[in-house]
Design goal:
This protein has ten helices and no strands. 63% of the residues lie in helices and 0% in strands.
């Protein structure tokens, strides 16, 4: 996608295209729409990152609470966003053994009980073993440190999702 196309989008088009670059948080996209024109994709990404960084702690926690549990209920029910479904599949979370599923379920519950938001990691940059290792390790972090780490993971997810959008090849049209 060309940045001129992005800058020419009306509000509804912009939110429709970019509304899930931060999982189920179209309000972020809606807020940065007014920052147009963007000079390139990275300017849009910076605008989103700056918006997130300027949120109060409760806003950052809210963004984290919008993320699904990894290999959790939404995956099993088929109700994940298309992006999350692909990311979790790529990380191998759709092909867990029963033991791995049980272990991750217990870790997710413990993590959420400790921090009051689900564990967030850029699944596309990790595999299932690394994800299990990371949640086991990060559960020992202080809440402040974990929020900071989790928000950085949100930004990684956003970056990859923006790359997906900007690198989309137009669908063939019939002549």
């Amino acid at each position: 996608m060309d940045i001129q196309v992005v800058n020419a989008m009306n509000y509804e088009e912009f939110v429709n295209v970019f509304g899930n670059v931060v999982e189920t948080c179209p309000m972020i996209t809606a807020a940065v729409w007014t920052d147009r024109p963007f000079t390139r994709m990275y300017a849009l990404e910076k605008s989103i990152g700056d918006f997130i960084d300027n949120l109060p702690q409760s806003g950052k926690e809210g963004i984290l609470r919008c993320h699904p549990d990894l290999a959790g209920r939404d995956l099993l029910r088929g109700t994940l966003s298309l992006e999350s479904q692909g990311e979790q599949s790529q990380a191998g979370l759709t092909s867990l053994t029963p033991g791995q599923r049980s272990q991750l379920s217990e870790l997710n519950a413990s993590y959420k009980n400790r921090f009051n938001f689900p564990f967030v990691i850029c699944a596309r940059m990790n595999d299932r073993d690394t994800i299990i290792q990371q949640i086991s390790s990060r559960i020992r972090n202080s809440p402040e440190h974990e929020i900071k780490l989790s928000i950085e993971e949100v930004k990684k997810i956003c970056h990859l999702r923006l790359l997906d959008i900007f690198n989309q090849v137009p669908k063939a049209t019939k002549l």
